[in-house]
Amino acid sequence: MLTLLLGALTLSAIYALVGFAWVLLRRTNGILNLATGAQLAIGAFIFNQFATSWQLPWPVVVLGTLATVAALGGVTHWVVFKKLSGQPEFALVVATLGLASALKGVSSLIWGTEARVMREPVPSQVVTFGDQATTTLYGLCGLGAAVLVFAAAHTFFKFSTVGIRMRAAAENPVLSAQGGIAVDWVYVLGWAMALTVAAIAGIMYAYQTALSFHGVEALGMRGLAPALIGGLTSVRGVIPGALIVGLAETFGTKVFGGSFQDVAAWIVILVVLLIRPQGLFGDKQVQRV
Amino acid sequence: MTTVRTLFNTATTMSEGGRGQALRRIAILALVCVLPLALRDYQLSLVTTALIAALGALALTLVTGFVGLVTAGNSALLALGAYGAAIGAVQLELPFLVVLVGSVLVGAVVGLLAGLPALRVSGIYLAIATLALHFILIFVFNEYQTRAVGSAGFFLPTASIGGLLIDNAIKWYAVLVVVVLATWRLVENLKRSKFGRAWMLIRDTPLAAASQGISLPAYKLAAFVVSSAIISMSGTFLAYFQQAVYIENFTLELAIQYIAMVIIGGMGSSGGAIAGACFVVLLPPMLSRAIALLPSDAVVAGFLQQNLGDFQLIIYGTLVVVFLVWRPDGLAGLGQRVAALRLPSRKGAR
Amino acid sequence: MNGPLLEVRSLTVSYGGDSVAVDGVDLVVREGEVCLVLGANGAGKTSLLRGIGGFASSEPGRVRGGRVTFAGADVTGLSPRAMARRGLVLVPEEAKVFASLTVDENLRAVPMSGGRAARRALVDEVTAMFPFIAERLSLPAGQLSGGERQLLGIARSLLLKPRLLMVDEASLGLSPIAVEMVFDMLRSVVASWGTTLLVVEQNVRAAQSISDNAYVLETGSVVLSGPAGDVLGSERVRQTYLGLEM
Would you call B278 helix, strand, or coil by DSSP? Predict the structure, then answer.
């Protein structure tokens, strides 16, 4: 039982990271990014390229992945979404779908579709708490990464000038521009941060399972569930959302069998849409138009 | 740069001349009659596949083009029609027409159930609900298929209408030409109806629509329900035409392909949707042919041929983005522009 | 008399479609003066200020024709950010502050120019002008009163060291006392900073005390302009804008 709860907790940590990526883009850039799944997978594959294929030293792997993924985020804004500014919201969503398709093609072309095993910095091992509760080292790593990312994000948005400007631009981009804020760079930063966190989630998940485009992409899409529970724009709301999804998936799989993993999050989404579409823990009411 | 919004405005204010309309009808009719004579069976069945896709694209034009909603549920609704056909034809041994009507009804009901909670809130929630619909329906059908027949999927009997077997390429072509033209008519009529005007008002100026007393959720839902019914129907056609149903066909990428048809064809133009469907369906075989023309010992040719599926994904995805950015009016807009160049006297495209 | 700081020639603004919100407006604001724009609701006052201050690419509004010259340079159609960096700063009508940010964060969000010490000094100077700010630093700006929000909006714009400050409907929705407070502040900004002001106002009585020149807009065009005293004293303005108040 404790092992199961621990499993749910480590899974929730991953979901919190994925949900963070969804919420950040929705809130800062105003985009419901349906390419999140593909971007999660691309991030993990880039990491794998540095770590496994090229066998580079770990600091280079980490910095290289960060730089590549962040650059990819920036390019996404300048090449695609800057050009779409002023278009209706649905055009932006459609563009993310196009992006998802293209990214999947690119990834499959470069890295194929088979599952891979990633090079590990330390051998994976089982960690035992007390008498019976067990989890894996990489599960704990994921938990640590989530705590780190949320703490860093909290500090960044609360105390740093850039973070405050990002919040300002998220609330009112026009007023921000009138106040001299470079809103385009805020958007670039939004994409870069979202893709970086997505990549972290993808990597952590791949270490706990295996690296396959399909698996990581599906996780990325399911991460919409914690984001929706949090109201799509609340970073804080993602945490209870991730716990709900993590528990639902862990216990659902226990009761209904392994393939239930694929749908637990989507059922949660349908339930949320039915009872409280604006989210259970959202900050603000959604505009009804 | 022309934005989607201004484009829509000009598209809606533009009216086609009566003579041009008549000419166009004759041209379409002639093309429809000549095609089966000019093409071989294989090519004709490709065209038929494109026609089936055109049904889905027309339905999607209703939702995305007219109302401005995004749905990712196209693939799931196709699967709904296809698995409905499998259950109806194989398990229940119902006749083709009964199955067809059934799939229309089921499609409408599922559209209602998926759209109802989402459209209470705002447009993008439909994208979320249909994503959930996709993953849940595919999961359910996969489980069902595994338990009923295994991973190979279902094999369907030949479709027949009133004792007449539809068992060759020409017959299928004839049936689908009629269905597509009828659906086209339906979509065009809806566009001009009270519904169509309300939909476009909702898309362009939602606040103005609301202030005129138009119930946004109800009208959005109506569009999505009609569209779901049509897509489900096209799924049934697809199943009977291919005489096989298996789950690997129904991916999220397929749903994106349908969106690509609408975007490439030109949002809000039903003729464009059909053109977009033909483009998306016929691109892979044409690419394949083009690659075959390359010298066979070239490494490039082998690489391209082997990864055709990946290139498809890249091409469709890129075209969606490119058309959204540069030509939100799609092929339909390009066509109008070319027509305007040819006939400078006719006042049409701007 | 000083030379023109802002020169607007046949400016036309539209929000898509064929209709225009501002139709060929000419307007000149000289260095150091206070210029008042009057007009009924929907006359195009806000659109005029937005047309001068620039539209973001995400907005439907566009400058369709005409020319805006600021400090000798052609700035027609520049982005709001470029305008702000040149010292042409707008305090908009609707949202003047970031409601979800605290008062302190609202000030910190402003990208100021100059070195650290200079920035610090400017912040101190501005906060000294607005005593309520120091007391409410950690309060979300959304919880401020209407007058305080207006003042915070002006304070934020002052941090950008504006040469021309455009204020849209400063008195809208404020109590008479708050209106007085806001206009006192504008007066002291003009007096101590030498900032040029372009003010859109429906509350003519509040605005007339500080205005040098005035323009009257009707359906997107200037129908009357001249020294504030003459314009406000004219029959037309007395009937339409002061009638209800006097």
Answer: helix
Q: Which domain holds residue A20?
A: 2-275
All structural domains of chain B with their residue ranges: 4-251
Domain count for chain A: 1
CB A60 within 8 A of CB A46: no
Examine residue C85 and state whether it is found in any structural domain, yes or no. yes
Q: Across-strand partners of C227?
A: C213
Q: Is A65 within a domain?
A: yes
Neighbours of A119 (CB within 10 A): 16
Residue by residue, pLDDT tens for chain C (246 residues) are 578 999 999 999 998 777 889 999 999 999 999 999 988 888 899 999 999 999 998 888 999 999 999 999 999 989 999 999 999 999 998 889 999 999 999 999 999 988 999 999 999 999 999 989 999 999 999 999 999 999 999 999 999 999 999 999 888 888 888 898 899 999 999 988 889 999 998 888 888 888 899 999 999 999 989 998 888 888 877 777 655 443
Instruction: Let me know if residue C109 belongs to a domain.
Output: no
Residues of chain B numbered 118-137 and touching chain A (CB < 8 Å) = 118, 120-125, 127-129, 131-132, 135-136
Q: State the count of interchain CB pairs (< 8 A) between A and C.
A: 77
Phi-psi region of C44 (alpha: psi -120 to 50; beta: other; left: phi over 0): left
Total residue count of chain C as it appears in this document: 246
Assigned domain for A177 exists: yes
Q: Which residues does chain B have within 8 Å of residue C17's beta carbon, measured at their own beta carbons?
A: 6, 9
Q: Which residue has the tokens 């206009």?
A: C183
B187 close to A (CB below 8 A): no
Domain total of chain C: 1
Q: Do B312 and A105 touch (CB under 8 A)?
A: yes
What amino acid occupies position B73?
A: G
List the single residue in C with minimal CA-CA distance to A284.
C100
Q: What would the pLDDT profile of B264-287 be if each residue is shown by its tens digit?
A: 998 888 889 999 999 999 998 988
Out of A171, A173, A175, the one facing C92 most closely (by C-beta) is A175
pLDDT in tens, A66-105: 999 999 999 999 999 999 988 888 899 999 999 999 999 9
Q: Residue A288, Cα to own-chain centre: how many angstroms?
A: 27
Would you call A175 and C108 a contact, using CB atoms and an 8 Å cutoff? no
Q: Is residue A143 part of a domain?
A: yes
C84: domain CATH number is 3.40.50.300
Question: What ipTM score was computed for the predicted complex, to two decimals?
Answer: 0.93
Contact A179 C109 (CB under 8 A): yes
Q: Evaluate whether A227 touches A26 at the Cβ level (below 8 Å).
A: yes
Nearest to C166 by CA among C11, C1, C21, C5: C5
C143 within domain boundaries: no
Q: A172 vs C56: CB contact, 8 Å cut-off?
A: no
Q: Taking each helix axis from N to C terminus, what angle separates B299-306 and B308-326, rounded to the nearest 10 degrees?
A: 80
- Interface of chain C toward chain A, CB-CB under 8 angstroms: 53, 56-60, 79-81, 83-85, 89-90, 92, 95-96, 98-101, 105-106, 108-111, 156-157, 160
CB pairs under 8 A between A and B: 157
Structural domain contains residue C35: yes
Range of the domain at C21: 4-95+163-242
Name C116's Cβ contacts closer than 8 Å, sequence gap at least 6.
none
CB contact under 8 A, C60 and B5: yes
Q: Does C16 touch chain B (CB under 8 A)?
A: yes
C101 with A171: Cβ contact below 8 A: yes
